[in-house]
Amino acid sequence: MSYTNEQPKDFIKSLQIIHFALLLGVLVFGAYVALTTNEQLFFSFEKDKAFLYLAILIAFAGNLASKFLFSKLLKQIPSNSDLLQKATKYSTAHIFRMAMLVFPTLMCIIFVMRSNNSFYFIIVGILILMMLAIYPSKAKFVNDVTLTTKEKSILEKL
């Protein structure tokens, strides 16, 4: 993504659109699976223990990986770079963070599809709540990235 010809405020809007599109994709796929397997769905945490443990492990690992990768990519942002470079690197970090949460969510939906066990939708719901909690905003950008007072004043004007 190139932000060279854009206003600093535009990166937040585009990042919110990307975030919403990824979230909507997961929700649509989950709804499709729920509607197509509606007759065969059952709820059990006793059957398919291998899928159950794997789903929990993948969700936990995805959550940890998303937090670790996000913080690592944010630490790589040089403090002397300009606002647009910081915005670009923040966008990249956020997209990777979302990808680390979308993957386990899709895997759990596939587990529902393969096993017809609706228990995995609980894990899907938890991961979706995590995705909603990290919805990008100007305030989160200011809190997550080290900005100069000049850059903060530029963002406040937007």
Query: Could you name the ranges where pLDDT drops below 50 across 5 or more consecutive residues?
Result: 1-5
Q: Summarize the biggest pleated sheet.
A: none
Tally the helices: what do you get?
A: 6
Helix/strand-derived category reads: mainly alpha
Features:
158 residues; mainly alpha; 75% helix
Describe the secondary structure blueprint for this structure:
Blueprint: H1 8-36, H2 49-75, H3 83-115, H4 120-133, H5 138-144, H6 149-157
Helix pairs in contact: 1-3, 1-4, 2-3, 3-4
Describe this entry's structure for a reader:
This protein has 6 helices and no strands. The protein has a domain at 51-145. Helix 1 runs antiparallel to helix 4 and helix 2 (49-75) runs antiparallel to helix 3 (83-115). With 158 residues, it is mostly helical. It is elongated, with a radius of gyration of 19 Å. The model is unreliable at 1-5 (pLDDT under 50).
Would you summarize the structure shown here?
This protein is mainly alpha-helical and 158 residues long.
